[in-house]
Amino acid sequence: MKFKDRKTFLRVREAVLPSMTEDTGNPNFIRQKRLLSIILAGLMAAVWMMLPAHIAAAETASGGENVLIVYYSRTGNTRAMANHVQAFTGGDIVELEPAEPYPAEYRATTEQAKKELEADFKPPLKVTVDDIAPYDVIFVGSPCWWGTFASPVRTFLSQHDFSGKKLVPFITHEGSGMGKSTEDLKSLCPQAVMFEGLAVRGREAENAKPQIEQWLKQMGMIRS
Fold first, then answer.
1. Nearest to 152 by CA among 207, 206, 215, 97
2. I need a surface site. Which of 80, 104, 168, 192 has the fewest CB within 10 A?
3. Quick one: pLDDT band at residue 39, thresholds 50, 70, 90?
4. CA atoms within 13 A on the CB side of 160
């Protein structure tokens, strides 16, 4: 049996359980009743675990989860996306800043980014997040550099333990989409709970508010 949402699940549970609590005074019936209650509770727990992730998220997102939006932006496109996410979620927002700025010239930046990725170099950060412990949901934003997160974001991801945290990636790009950023995020943070990411073309980021709103609604991440 599949339930469309948690309210339906609860209604079914409330309908079934009372029928099992009528006491006939028969000892055998009482023992059977207790056994069936245990079995039913286990089955319901299993069904609830199989509900779609965005339904489960919707139930917890409205329960006061602490949200953090962390991102790196060289041109301002990813910053625009991050600001939209912040407006809908009400989360804290931090823009990562490397200790040494990237070159102003685009090609020089791409060449440096390629060398950093090949060497697995993680540049020191001047502005970062010291403690992620208070946060339940962490949005991670970046431009797509050589098919993955920019190096400053990789630095941030390598500095913390994301076990049990809900990670939500978002990417700006000019044709590569998410690239392999989702796979890399899973590799860097294997104990985190991954949510579906969103990729937006850089030149469209400023006007992507409706698209971002729909994405967040599907995951139940809109601030109530």
1. 97
2. 104
3. low
4. 23
Phi first, then psi, for residue 166 (nearest 5°) are -90, 115
Q: Is residue 27 domain-shared with residue 131, that is, in the same domain?
A: no
Structure tokens at 162: 């994301």
| Residue 76 Ramachandran class (φ > 0 left, ψ -120 to 50 alpha, else beta) | left
In a shared domain, residues 160 and 70: yes
- Cα separation, 68 vs 64, whole angstroms: 13
CB count, 10 Å around CB of 80?
Answer: 22
Question: Which residues, at least 6 apart from 177, have a Cβ–Cβ distance to it below 8 Å?
Answer: 144, 171, 199
Question: How many degrees, rounded to 5, is the angle at CA 165 between CA 211 and CA 157?
Answer: 85
Per DSSP, the three-state class of 31 is helix
Per-residue pLDDT tens digits for 125-143: 999 999 999 999 999 999 9
pTM as predicted: 0.72
Predicted local confidence at residue 64, as pLDDT: 81
CA 153 to chain CA centroid, nearest Å: 15
- The pLDDT of residue 27: 54
Q: Are residues 65 and 32 in the same domain?
A: no
Q: Which amino acid is at 163?
A: S
Q: Are strands 125-127 and 97-98 parallel, antiparallel or unpaired?
A: antiparallel
Q: Residue 57 pLDDT > 80, yes or no?
A: no
Give the position of tokens 């609830």.
48
Residue 202 DSSP symbol: G
Q: What is the pLDDT of residue 63?
A: 54
